[in-house]
Amino acid sequence: MSCPFKSAPLGPPSLGSETSSLCCAGRNSLCTHNPRHSTRSQVSAANSRVCHHFCWKVGMGGRKMARDEENAYGSQDPDDQQPLAQERRLRLILAGRTGVGKSATGNSILGHRLFPSRLAATPVTRRCALGSRSWAGWRVEVTDTPDLFTAQGRHADPDCTERASCYLLSAPGPHALLLVTQLGRFTTQDEEAVRGVRELFGAGVLARAVLVFTRREDLEGGSLHDYVRATDNRALRALAAECGGRVCALDNRAEGAERDAQVGELLALVERLALEHDGAPFTDDVYGLAWARRHARPDDTLRLVAARLAARGLGRGWGGQWGRGRRWLEAARRGWPLALLLLGGALLFVLLLLHRGAPGPD
């Protein structure tokens, strides 16, 4: 298994000229990219050397890099010589259902195309991936995710390996969870994805969530807050309230200054959220396990984190059966008014039949 945790040091803190790294966190995959000095041959030659020497983020602002990794990738960029400990970290996780534009949103945040994103009938993103950039004195780290949060996505990850990869890439915890949805198309699948987020991270994670709408251009200059307040979608209004009213919209086709202004608005919102918590990330026992084992073999850590998630009932077996049972109960709860109406109609019909069949007075 390849190491899923590589993230190389990156370029200067500017909106238009930053470089990014990509880490594909999945089984049998290691994909690193630095546009300024990484090549396919360097990656290929380095795979065998770095798979047991990944770089873990240390504390809020530092990074420990293995010597083999430094040798394999070199240090040709003068910006790489600057101490990374001087940059504060903002860790973000992209979440939501398939097809809403999570990867495109990640690319907008990074400032260029890094995560695979295209219109397709089937999901394009298959593995968790990590990219980063500098912004206003912060090192912003973005974890892109495949479909981890709907029933179909969880079924494709029965041993919780991909969900464990998400935890490891974002350890010791995210400062913000970006719940991505399409403007005007918040569906029952979006609601299902939100339930999946709660199941994976716990309900408390929504206190660190920002609701991000793609297709900002459909607002046609209108106010996003007015749109959310006026929508007749009660589930959407409730979610926005649960996220503390933190909403933002992006046009992922925007470029240049327009894109930078939109991304700056989103990151400023995330920055305020992080500072409200004194810079401390969201965490739980699984993040604690991942962070405590940051110096252990990555394969072993991935396996242990996946096992911890499976023990929560997120994998196959009894937990999966309970999850299906709970979803059935939720569906039954939502449909009880109709059931009562039908039952009442049936009882009334029986009473009418009995009344008509009863003998009259002599």
TrEMBL record:
CDD domains recorded: AIG1
Keyword hit for Transmembrane helix: yes
TM region positions: 336-354
InterPro entries: G_AIG1, GIMA/IAN/Toc, P-loop_NTPase
One matching Pfam family: AIG1
AIG1-type G domain residues: 87-291
Keyword Membrane: yes
Signal peptide: none
Gene3D superfamilies linked: P-loop containing nucleotide triphosphate hydrolases
Keywords: GTP-binding, Membrane, Nucleotide-binding, Transmembrane, Transmembrane helix
PROSITE patterns the UniProt entry points to: G_AIG1
Sequence similarity: Belongs to the TRAFAC class TrmE-Era-EngA-EngB-Septin-like GTPase superfamily. AIG1/Toc34/Toc159-like paraseptin GTPase family. IAN subfamily.
The name this protein goes by in its record: AIG1-type G domain-containing protein
Organism: Felis catus
Name of the encoding gene: LOC101094088
